């Protein structure tokens, strides 16, 4: 399989050629019966019995050694992925954005969302999300994650020991945990239709102040993926004027989304102020579907998906098929966007 698609979760994954899985012939029924049949050996005290037993043990040991070598070689073959960082010229670069969108109060209260109570309404526990994310990032330096809502993060941060806080500092400094190049950084992801602009400014300022104080970082992108509708105030005052490089959102009218997909107009330069014109414009990106992964690539435990099975010893080895599924989904999105760089909606969803 040739290298067709590269991806970026902050890093780039290029699918290199892989050898096909070796055939694993099944034993015949007669052979299986032989394997199951009890082996009768002469009594070990007899010299001939001891020789036969010794010979059998040597044969078994040599076969076991061959099996271990084969397993080792097959395991090494499954570790041949290229996960180095960087973009690939002339390829379709798919930028993966692992995230969790956490409403600061919606179907449940903010306290219920944080500790995971009242799960009959919605299964969500932000405290566990942050705990598991930090553990996963520590285990693998190639992993990355973005987090937006400071109302939850600051509560979690205040509960952690100096040791855990030091670990999080390293994750932020290394770019594994990001408040910078992909998220809003406000206290919450505010509405844009029914709120006063002063409240939008205040809550954004509060979140940015916390991030600056604790990590000396400044968010660079507007991440308004869930508000129902978007205002010029957000594009101008809380976009370009805040210092953001770009804005990203998911919710637009279904008719407008269909038209923009047909015209390849999901990515635009938004001039939020008629007064300031081009001096206040900002790159804006509307997602082609939603802020969840493409179908078949949401790996939550209750989701319907086919897991990637890359062990060559498995009968259901399916790396080539899942890579082809990835390529098909990436090309489908590339067909409604303008360049060879696409953000694969987002690798995450609510909570």
Give the helices and strands, then pairings.
Elements: E1 5-8, E2 12-14, H1 29-36, H2 47-77, E3 92-95, H3 110-115, H4 126-139, E4 145-146, H5 150-159, H6 162-174, E5 177-178, H7 197-215, E6 221-223, H8 232-240, E7 246-249, H9 254-263, E8 267-271, E9 281-286, H10 319-334, E10 341-343
Parallel strand pairs: 1-3, 3-10, 4-5, 6-7, 7-9
Antiparallel strand pairs: 1-2, 8-9
Short description:
The chain has helices spanning 29-36, 47-77, 110-115, 126-139, 150-159, 162-174, 197-215, 232-240, 254-263, 319-334; strands at 5-8, 12-14, 92-95, 145-146, 177-178, 221-223, 246-249, 267-271, 281-286, 341-343.
The helix content is 25-40%
Strand order across the largest sheet: 2-1-3-10
Summing up helix and strand content along with how strands pair, one would put the structural category as: alpha/beta
Low-confidence stretches: 1-79
Q: Compute the separation of the termini in Å.
A: 36 Å
Number of helices: 10
Strand content: 5-15%
Output the radius of gyration.
27 Å
Order of helices and strands: EEHHEHHEHHEHEHEHEEHE
What can be said about the biggest beta sheet? 4 strands, mixed
Total count of strands: 10
